[in-house]
Amino acid sequence: MVVLDTNMMSVLKWRDTPKANTILDRLDRYPAKEIATTIITYEEQVRGWLSFIHQHQDKQHRRFPTMDLKIAAIVKTKSATLVSENLRHFTPIAGLTVENWL
To answer: Could you tell me the pTM of the whole model?
Structure first.
């Protein structure tokens, strides 16, 4: 089993780089169930995005509910698309992809 630290996870965010390719090549040697990270790494990434979102929000002079900001930070950490009917709170967040399926 291997456990990836925050810096390794950060490198993997940029998949088309030599460093990311090196890590991915090494990870190919392990079954998926033997690759892990820690909750600490996850929390560090979420806090980093939360800080970014707060700074952007301050520039727009807008305030969003804290839980919505945390949701946005988690989605950004995963480079995912957020599915929500509440576009008003999420679409102003820079770089966040939001879809309303309703």
So the answer is: 0.54
Q: What is the pLDDT of residues 40-72, one digit of tens each?
A: 878 888 888 888 877 777 666 666 777 888 888
Q: Of 40, 57, 48, 53, nearest to 13 (Cα)? A: 48
Number of Cβ within 10 Å of residue 35's Cβ equals: 13
Distances (CA, A) of 25 to 79, 83, 88, 90, 101: 21, 32, 41, 36, 37
3-state class percentages of the chain: helix first, strand second, coil last, to nearest 5: 55, 10, 30
d(CA 61, CA 51): 15
